Each structure stands twice: as structure tokens, then as C-alpha cells.
Amino acid sequence: MASARLPSAVVTVLISLIALLLYNRGGPLSRLYLNAPSRLPRENNLSQPSIKFSNTVRNCEDVILDVEEGFALLSCDPSRDVWNTVMGTFIDPTSSPSTGIYIWHYSTPDTEPEQVKLLDFSRRSQEFHPLGIEYHAPSNTLFIINHSPSGPTVELFRFYPSERAATHITTLRHPRLATPNSLAVLSSTEFLVTNDHYFHRRFNPFFALLETYLAFRGGSVIHVKLHPNIADGIKAASNLMQLPFANGIAHLNASTIAVASSSMNTVYLYSITQPASEDSPPYLEQLSSISLPFHPDNLSVDGSGKLLIAGHPHGPTLEKVAKSNRFCHSGVAEEREKCFTEGLSWVAEWSEVEGVKTLYVGDEYGTSTTAVRDVGRGVGVVTGLYAEGVYVWRD
Ligand SMILES: *[C@@H]1O[C@H](CO)[C@@H](O)[C@H](O)[C@H]1NC(C)=O
Ligand SMILES: *[C@@H]1O[C@H](CO)[C@@H](O)[C@H](O)[C@H]1NC(C)=O
Ligand SMILES: CC(=O)N[C@H]1CO[C@H](CO)[C@@H](O)[C@@H]1O
């Protein structure tokens, strides 16, 4: 009888899934228990940490530093509360007027982040949800991953730091850039970008979640080559490799690329070999991996060559913040009662010699995604996906 066979088939599938989970995923899954908010051991090894600019910026996913000029660029989107294509929130696609890129001259005392004017960019009000950003200073090119409601894009701008303005060059779209998350520039016409999933949270929410929790190799690293005149867009996009939930990507040194896999609690290191011919993509080969006690989100490399890794101790807590953050900013008192603010953060650093060192685990500043450090000036900045302001420390 079909009705009797169906449940047993379901049970078989469930048992196989659980077996697969335990076989492959024991480490990351044990963190569901160990890193629950009531158990997570807090520690703070940052010096003089403080939350700054909570009235100016919130929901900043990314921060990059220009240590030559002494400024930070922040990518912030308050409307992420109601539109997040990675976490699966699809309530209202309109961007907030304060969604955008902010410049903060951290080397000048008493300055605040100021919003960068995005000129010739008609998609600004409806179609702008910036995620990862990257800046190629020699050519003044700013790369912004945009989770636009009409489909993901990479927006290219010419940036004029002293004018706090950027002019739009072109919009890049490609079938291989389906779930773009993080970007690492190789040259003015070449970059690597991660896709976090194969299944899109918007169109296949169930499979996207299954992909995350079972850690299928659905994420990827794509090499994008632009035309010599970058306004002409993409010349070629090649898939270099697949890995589960690919997130942050950074150039560790001339020959090594680091890629974070959020669902595997691991950062993978790959050697990057330039191709023999101009028209082929580079080649990545895995060198080693770094196991972490949390879900790594984004990566950066400081002036001394250390890898900074920011991320999330506990997936379900992050999901809870993602779902309720909009209530915290609601004008309606009843809605504000549903606000949940105890987001968790984990920031660590890694070097070949010293291994992994924890810099911060806590909830004063939650949902950490990216950490950067200017070694010369002794300034560090952490951004939080659903946090007000940024977390700044001074060494
Ligand atoms: C992560 O940080 C790097 C800079 O280290 C940046 O290029 C990238 O776009 C960031 N990604 C996200 C998703 O914030
Ligand atoms: C780059 O970093 C890797 C990983 O730490 C290391 O093994 C390699 O020797 C470094 N290469 C250079 C050229 O510094
Ligand atoms: C690397 C380091 O300094 N770790 C310290 C961080 O802070 C905790 C206490 O909060 C210490 O136990 C660690 O040794």
C-alpha cells in the first residue's frame, strides 16, 4: 500500500541524512550545543573596544581599509532588516535612504563616517542592497556586490575619496554570479568572487537551508576577467572550484588565497597559479585548512600578513536576529516587544606561526561579519550584519 510505504521511505531518507550529518558534520554540529548563547564562553582580548557611530550607521556587512590614506569604507544597509537574500528575508525590497557606502577617515580624530555620493546610479533608491565591497586604489575602482531585487549584480564605480563621491561605470551580471557574496581583486580588470549557495534562498528556500545544514558543495569561487575597458563589462567568467557555503575570500599573499566555508567552520588556503595563456583562468590548489570553533563569515589580511576572521558562533541565534531585527526599529510599540538583540560575535586571527587566536567572543556587539586592522596606526574595526554602529579597538 502506497500510504504505508511512504512513511518508511521518508524514515529511510531521514536516517540516511542523519548518518551523513554525523559522519561529515560532527564538529560544526556540536557547536549548535556548545555555542548556544547560555553556554558560549565570552572573552575580550581587544584593547579599548567601543561601539561607535550607532546613530550614523547600522547593518554594516563589510569594511575595507585604505591604510595609505587612512580611511575605511563601510557597506551598510539598514533595509537588510526587510530584504536579505542570503538569510532569506523578503518583505520589502526598497532601499533605505541611509543604505550605502560610508567613508570614515579614522586617521583624523573626531571624524564620523559620511555617506559616499553615488553619481549616475539610477538604481540607487529601489535596487541597491550592498554586500561585499572591494577597492582597487591604483585605478580608483570600487567594486560593490549588490543584492538587487531584480537579480544580483556587481556594480563598478570610479571613486573620488576627497570628494566623497563615486561615479557609476557599469553593472556586471552573469549566470555564474548567481549568489555572489565576497570579492577579492586581483588587478584592475580581474577579480575572484564567491557564490555562497547553489540553491537561492529566494527561489528554493528549503533546498538552500538543506544545502547549508548538510554542507553540500554548492558554493563556488568564480574568476572574472573584464574587458580592457572595464565599462565594456565581463569578458569571461570561469568556475574555479566548488565548496560548501563559500563566504569571505581574501588574498593572503602573492601566491595564496583564503576562502571561508561558513557551514564547515573552516577556512581553506589555496595556492593560486597564473595561467600560461592570457585567456585562461588561474588555477587553485588546496594547500591546507584552518578549523574554527564558529562559522567564519568574512576574511581580511592586515599589514603584518595575519588573517582576520569574523563570524557567527551560533547559526540559530543569527537566524533569530535576522528575523526579528526589523521589530527593534519599528514605530509600533507592540512590534518592538518582538525585538531580539542578543546577537553573538566571534573574531579571531590566524598566522602560520601562531595558529588561531581568539580576539573577541561576545554579545555587546553582535552578528560580526568582517574585521580589519591597520597595524601601523593600531586601529581595528569590526562590522555587524544586524548591529548598530561599528566596533572599534585601538592597539
Ligand atoms: C569581505 O572583505 C573583503 C576585504 O577583505 C571584501 O573584499 C569582501 O567583499 C568582503 N565580503 C563581504 C561579503 O563583506
Ligand atoms: C603565503 O602564505 C602561506 C600560508 O601561510 C605560506 O605557506 C607561504 O609560504 C606564503 N608565501 C609567500 C610567498 O609568502
Ligand atoms: C590570546 C589571548 O590573549 N587570549 C586571552 C583572551 O582572554 C581570555 C580571558 O578573557 C584569556 O584567558 C586568554 O588567554
UniProtKB/TrEMBL annotation:
Keywords associated with the record: Membrane, Transmembrane, Transmembrane helix
Keyword Transcription among record annotations: no
Superkingdom of the source species: Eukaryota
SUPFAM superfamilies cross-referenced by the UniProt entry: Calcium-dependent phosphotriesterase
Residue ranges crossing the lipid bilayer per the database entry: 6-23
Keyword Membrane among record annotations: yes
Annotated protein name in UniProt: Arylesterase
Native organism: Extremus antarcticus
